[in-house]
Every structure is written in C-alpha cells, then in structure tokens.
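Shipment paperwork, digital attachment
Item: protein structure file
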Amino acid sequence: MNRRRFARHVAGAVVSRAIVAPDSVALHPPPRGPLRGASAKGVLFDALALFDTRPVAFVAEEIYPGRAAALMTSWRARQFEYAWLRVITGHYADFWQCTEDALRWSTAALGLPLTGAQQHRLMQAHLELRPWPDVPPALQTFHDSGFRVGVLSNFSPLMLDAAIRANGLAALCGRVISTHEVRSYKPDPRAYQLGIEALHLPRERIVFAAYGGWDAAGAKLFGYPTYWVNRLQAPTEELGAPALDGIGRSLSDLAVFMNTFAPR
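Attachment content:
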C-alpha cells in the first residue's frame, strides 16, 4: 500500500468506524515533524494507549462516593511505586499483585473500609477494560498496511489476556508481551528489549507508542523512535530524555504520523 492510499485508508477507517463518546478524545490533526532516519516497519504499543482504565474509577466512585478521586490518585501512584521498588529490592511481584497490594495500602491510608467483596470488585474491573474508541480502526489500519504490531506492557499476562481477548483484538495486536517475562518493568532497558526480540526488527525501525509520559521518556532513552499518545494532555516529563518524535492525543493521530513509514 503506497503512502497516498494509506492516508486515505486512515482517514476513512478512523472517521467511519470510531464511535467517539462525548467525553472521549476527539480526532485531531497529525502532529508536526515526521520521524527522521530509517523507515519504521513496526509499531509497539503500551497497553494503556489501547485500553481505557477510567471504568475502574467509576467502580471506585460507586463504592466510595466522593472519595474515588483521592483513592485513584493514591492507588495509581502506589501501584507503580510498588512495581519499581520490588524490582530494585529484588522482591519481584507481577503487576496484578502490585495493584492489589497498592489498593490495600491506599484504602488504609485514606481510612476507607475494604471488604473482600469490594477488593474483588475493584480488582475485577482491571480485567474488564475496553479499548478507547479510536483503537479498533487504527489497529486494523496498521495491520492492513503491513506493519509488524505488538503490545509491550507492565500488565501481568492475566491482565493483558483479559483485555485483548475479551475485546476480540488478538488478531490485530500481534505479539503481546508482558514485562513479566524478564521479571521487571518499564523503564528498565531489559523490558524494552523484549519488543525488539518479539518483532524481529532493529530498534530504529520500531515506533514505540506510549501512554504515560514517563514511558515515552524511557522508550526514547532506550533508543526507540517514540510517539506519545498523550490522551490526558499531560506535561512532558523532566527526565532528561531527547525530544520525542511525535505527540498526539489518539491513535488516529499516530496512524497519520505513521503514514510516512507505510511499507511499500
């Protein structure tokens, strides 16, 4: 598929198939400044660039009316802190365990009750994630255009399998990789290396599509051409990473950006 046909395909697929809810990210013009260097042949996604975790907060609000925002802020921060601290201290646990431990700590810190049923409901919400509206058509476009596609996530294998298979995206997500394979987490270089081994491409030919600013910085420092799917319009992290190759708010932005590298 040549570039002109790819661009038309992107526009048609995203507009006709993405159902954008009122509070979802709308379509935006492609970012300025295409990637420099060799043509990319693959795209590697963080799971959160594909799946919307906001329903977890909705469940939290039902259980703790008026306290969900405080809980989610504490829980999310502690979730990643526990993951990274466990690697540093040599006491690794997968992301599911880190998420559960962080939930118990956060509810205790906020003085919130946590019954077994409430814990189960909040954890189960992580196994019932749905894709952002722009995801299925964009993934189809990448697949149809010949890119090697993969997912590289800190999620445990259980979490990844639930999100991808439940939404019928297995055929479009290509190689699905949990950093559990190296008993570590991004931004550890060992975690990013898994993408190179899975897609069988040199790093400069793989565009990494990050959701978190810290992940975008980590991928860029590792050496991936990096695109930040900045759905929440967060500021760039101050981690000393080189400038990112592109920033947008949706996978439709990424798809137009990737047009520059459509395989011929």
